[in-house]
């Protein structure tokens, strides 16, 4: 079967299965022909194998047939053999070594086409060993009188030098002589060979530990050819029309591109070479027509060369303007390479200015690019995502102090439309821009809040943390602005922006009291209409935070921050009873949560709040605490119901016991032991209640408390040594006093030892000014007023006497009130005096 018949059969197949059947059948027939050594059909079989290889089917079984065809004396068979060898074999194939002798024989052939075939095979498949063996033969063709062989020899030599870099220095002189060739094809291949030699030489220098910019013998030889290369490029710009080399009205664009590439490599580290090529680069950039694709290719390579060499600033501005024109082109490929080149060039220039310490000039690539800022921003709206990404990279390099607000607004607009996987990187870059070029604190906070509002779900923890830091370090006015704006953003959000929720909840918990005051500000974008945030009620603030946890998508880490915000708000909104009560219920809600962290926070926060409330004295309308109540006024029975754990109570007891402060409770415990001191005249008093009331004598002061009392003097000696009542701190740090053989006092709040009123229950006092713990006052019968300080008229039996004291603290806020009370009276002919000191009043009130 001939090749055309196989192609016809394959095209006639309607399904892939039919095609596979045809190929399998034909491959089997080719294998049979190879096995039977059918030499007259060998070239036909290899041609069919090439077609089968193009379709993607395996053809490795025909590699040896290609080797046999290359050794054929007939040119058609040799041509098919070399073509099959270059397509079906790779440089890793073992059978390739068998072709070395055939290649050497063909290189010495008198037929230039046969020698050309061998040079093409060497240029495509030569290995390191083949290059060493065949390099001398290729070198002979570099001096061939035929341009056809010289250009092919240049390409083959490039392959040999890339495989054997140690041969580079031996062929430098040969390359220099070929640059004067008159043939157009030879010039292109020689320039390509010089470029490849420079690349290999630079790689060798790096491997030897030398700097890439350090001149080597090869580079030095090529630098002497820069004037020649510049002259060739200028001739191509000024030469007339040549039909053989003209492409779209551009004279030999391929050679111009190759020359510009070689000049870029030579001038990148040599100022003298750069000065020689400045004029021709300006000529190429100015005279090349950009209406055709060939002209755009030359201009792009010219821009690459200008940006790579240390040329003048005016030339760089010209290059940036060329790339700016590329951005207006309809072709996305041209726009892409323009954006990519601008980003790379601006980044390199910034790095150079940073290393050299030179400030930004008014006539450089950066300032020139600012003129094309609008065009770059318009690329963010391009439908092609690759164009948008390159424009985004370029905008980051364009930002400075003068345009940070406008470009950041464009970045935020693009953040709304960009793919989700790019939002994290854009948020991080916006943070860097804001951190470096922010004009004011309010603008910085506003930008970061807007970023979290748009991409709070994708923003990294660094963006959230930076927002919190900037808010906390700002002034009080920024605090009010941030908390109002975040509260509004939380109410408008659907709960998906987790970063916004975290920052917003923290800010409300930290500065929630500022929401109860209205706030007004003028935007910085030129709009003079002020924006006003209305004041919120405490319950509205609590409901705004509570609403976040009711959303189904609210994550646990946001709920944890909400619990912390509840605790902070319970102190900042403590003046509102409804809000405080609601916050307490919300804190207790998660005590049975499935999340261990939520449950732990809820229990700890509740215990903390109850411990803080336990330090307050009981109110008047509460029942009297039992005798075994602790310093918090909490008994063992009531502590369970109120939610205060025994550990919290014990810790609070220990903390308060170590504090060197005298409290009213301590005075109650001292008085319960009935220890009163009155200097050297102090005597213990024992009280007994008579079984039946006796007629009032009218002069006994004890009748003030509605009972009759018998005072027994006892021994006249002084009592055992013990802590003095004047030193109320002694019972905290000293050992406990010895028990006194006195009857226990039923009412611990009675400083003067009066028996309790049996007819009613005395509530525990909560007002520290009620020093005596007396029962509620009753209306006295009409009688002359009783003067405690010198009066002689005694009250009627069972009557209640109350004395109102008005005390003014002249050092309010500096020192607390401390009262010393002394009462003296005569009972049964004996003088009795009581002295007591009361302290522990709430600070700041008395």
From TrEMBL:
Signal peptide coordinates: none
Record-given protein name: AP-1 complex subunit gamma
Similarity comment: Belongs to the adaptor complexes large subunit family.
Span of domain Clathrin/coatomer adaptor adaptin-like N-terminal: 19-611
GO-annotated biological processes: intracellular protein transport; vesicle-mediated transport
Keywords from the UniProt entry: Cytoplasmic vesicle, Golgi apparatus, Membrane, Protein transport, Transport
InterPro entries membership: Adaptor_Complx_Large_Subunit, AP1_complex_gsu, ARM-like, ARM-type_fold, Clathrin/coatomer_adapt-like_N, Clathrin_app_Ig-like_sf
Chief location: membrane
Subcellular location: Endomembrane system; Golgi apparatus
Keyword Manganese: no
Family matches, as Pfam families: Adaptin_N
Listed SUPFAM superfamilies: ARM repeat, Clathrin adaptor appendage domain
Transport found in the keyword field: yes
GO-annotated cellular components: AP-1 adaptor complex
